[in-house]
Write a structure and sequence with these properties.
The chain is mainly β and 128 residues long. It has 2 domains: 3-65, OB fold (Dihydrolipoamide Acetyltransferase, E2P) (Beta Barrel), CATH 2.40.50; 76-115. It contains no helices and 11 strands.
Length: 128
């Protein structure tokens, strides 16, 4: 196989950011580990349709998820983004913003947790 191919993620190495891809149009051949070309850490889970580019030896890169009507963009399955010292993650129904050190804000199961040295809530009067 050589060139551009579309297939489905069959295995994920979240530590290295690599995926293995199965190509149904090629008799379900499975690729070796392919690095994911991405500027954000958002590994596509198994069974996700992806695009790849391979050389004649089967080495290459996974270009990422292919969005379509049957596979629209969805950050709920897992998302991570860093902006300077702030990290934003979403996975498993939880959304979290880490501000560095021990400071963070998290939403999970209807509960908002805020952890910081000082918290200012404008317009809030605590019960007596």
């Amino acid at each position: 196989m050589e060139g551009y191919y579309e297939g489905f993620v069959s295995s994920v190495d979240v530590t290295r950011g690599f995926v293995k891809v199965t190509y149904p149009q090629e008799g379900n051949i499975v690729s070796d580990w392919l690095p994911l070309l991405a500027h954000e850490y958002n590994i596509p889970p198994p069974n996700t349709r992806v695009a790849t580019v391979l050389d004649k030896f089967g080495r290459g890169v996974c270009l990422g998820k292919i969005f379509s009507y049957s596979q629209p963009p969805d950050s709920a399955g897992g998302y991570a983004k860093s902006i300077e010292s702030v990290t934003i993650t979403a996975a498993g129904g939880a959304f979290r913003i880490d501000f560095g050190g021990d400071a963070y804000m998290q939403y999970k199961n209807g509960v908002v947790t805020i952890n910081a040295n000082n918290i200012i809530l404008n317009g809030y009067t605590p019960p007596i």
